Every structure is written in structure tokens, then in C-alpha cells.
Amino acid sequence: MISREWDAMKCLFIYNPHSGKGKIAKHLDYIVKRLHEKFEVVETYQTKSSEDTINVARESCGKYDALVFSGGDGTFNDVVTGVAPMEKRPILGYIPSGTVNDIARNLSISRNIKKACDVIVNGKVLYHDVGVVNDRYFMYVVAAGTFTEVSYRTDQKIKKVLGKLAYIVDGIKDVFNPVFTKVRIIADGVTIEDTASLLLVLNSKSVGGIRLNKDGHANDGLFDVVLVRKSYFFGISNIIRLFTFGLSRRKKRKYIYHIRAQRIYVETNENVVWCLDGEQGPSGNIEIINLPQHIRIFVSKNYKN
Fold first, then answer.
1. What is the C-alpha to C-alpha distance for residues 287 and 81, in angstroms, rounded to an integer?
2. ∠ CA 164-166-172 to the nearest 5 degrees?
3. CA 79, CA 82: separation in Å to the nearest integer?
4. Element (H or E) spanning 32, and its range?
5. Coil, strand, or helix at residue 129?
6. Is 239 helix (H, G, I), strand (E, B) or coil?
7. What is the pLDDT of residues 123-154, one digit of tens each?
8. Is the pLDDT of residue 70 over 80?
9. What share of residues in the chain are helix, strand, coil (percent, to 5)?
């Protein structure tokens, strides 16, 4: 039984025809059929580039009640970049088809097309925080330091062949050439100064396909700020410990700083390049602000934040 709430509602489905090795394009008819179970009008659009995705997402605001899209974390970032500045924002529906899909993990959305469609058709609406870095938006992570360039440095052709293994192969370079970053962090009045081998600002439970922040919350208006300190073996050992044990034992560990804040300012070397949701971001000093419950997205009825 379709809820009358969605009768006569309009939905736009946008997708990259090459994403997921072309799997989405092959299942386009099925996806449209499933979306018609909830929406009277369903239109489709093949995106041509990241910029095109941003523009189409922006133009959907005020025209469509829901914007459903397929892709990886980068595509999700493009969609949020398009809709976040607008006053009228459609509800988002997500069909994951990327390599890592951290955002999908955070929201418990399956890569299985049928299950992802089930979430959109039968799920509930979650209000989700959005982050702003200077003048750019992000959904789940801002990062600098060792291993953070891997997500956008790894060749796309290799990723299509090796999948997640491509990131591991590329990341080996950083083991022998770790990155150290001197930072001064001011987060809601708390100041931290240290040399970091890795700095993360998280709005998620999963990063790099690893669930390291089990207490992460999608819509409490706060970020988790995690600074991994430089120490033995160039700080690599501390990064390994973080991703092995997560933040749950942070009170017993001296190799990281971990605080929660809504507004964060980071002073650092101008050559430091920040990674936003797996894509290359700004350089140098940044200001990060949390926009509480700024977007809406379909999640499973059983989803617990």
C-alpha cells in the first residue's frame, strides 16, 4: 500500500552511466519501476561530470520533492554541494555504487540495488548534519596527513580493476613517506597544538571502509575531532592502532586527542591539502562549521543513529 503522502510527488533520478562498472545503467528500468511505487512522476538524467552533478542537484531544488542518485562518496558530496546552499531542498535517496561507500555504511544502506530501492520506497526520513569547510560542503570527513591523499590519488582505472585493494596498494607509498602536519586547533574554545601524523574531523562511524567511530552521530550538531600524534615509527603505528581499536578506548590512550565540537578552526602550513569526503579539498588554514540537520535522506525504518 503506497502512502498517500507521496501521491503526485515528483522524483528525479540522476546517475553516472559508468559508475559501478555500468551496473546502474543496466538496471535503470528496474530502478525507475521501483521509484514509481512511491512517486507519481519519475524523471532520469545521466550526469556527465562532477560539475554537472552539482548543477543538476542545485536545479532540482524547488522542482522535485525527491532527488535520488547513484554513485560513490564523491557523488554524494557533489549532490550535497548542489542542494545545501538552497532554501528548498529535496529529500535525498541514495543507491550506492562506489568503491568504498563510507556514507552508505554510516546510513546502513546496502549496495544491493533492490535493498537500496526498498529503503527509498519503504524507509523513513532522517535529518542529517552537513559540514562546511571554508566555502565547500562535506558529509562525513575532513582529513589531512598520512594516507589522506590515497582516496583521490589512486588511479580510477586501477580502482575499477582492483576495487578497495587499489587503495591499499597506493597507500603503501605513505608508509615509507609519512606526512607530518604542525597544527593549532581551536574547537569551541578548546585549543590543541601538536604535530599530527593524521587529523580527522568526522561526522561518521566509518572511514576508509573501517568502522572506527562506533559512537558517531549523524545529526547531533557536533563533529568528532581526532588528532593522531607523531611518535614511534613516524606515527604510522598510532594510525594503525586507531583504525584497529577505534575511538572506543580513547580514554586509555595517549597517542590521540579526541574532542567534539560544532565550530573548528585549524591553523597549519599552507601546503597542507585537505581531503573532503574522499576528494581533494582546500589547502592551508580552514574553518569548519556544522549545519545541524540540514538535509533529509531516506534510511531504513530500522536505522538507529
1. 17
2. 115
3. 5
4. helix 28-35
5. strand
6. helix
7. 999 999 999 999 999 999 998 886 665 554 44
8. yes
9. 30, 35, 35
For 295, which DSSP code?
A: E
* Cell, residue 112: 544491493
Query: Which of 90, 40, 87, 88 has the alpha carbon at shortest distance from 69?
Result: 90
pLDDT in tens, 17-49: 776 667 788 899 999 999 999 999 999 999 999
- List Cβ neighbours of 193 (8 Å cut-off, separation of 6 or more): 183, 184, 185
Would you list the domain boundaries of the chain?
4-122, 136-292
CATH fold of 4-122 reads Rossmann fold (3.40.50)
The residues carrying an active-site annotation are 279
DSSP string, 246-291: -STTGGG-SSEEEEEESEEEEE--TT-EEEETTEEEEES-EEEEEE
Residue with cell 596498494: 169
**Secondary structure (3-state) at 17:** coil
CATH 2.60.200.40 given to domain 136-292 = yes
Cα 210 to the chain's mean position, in Å? 13
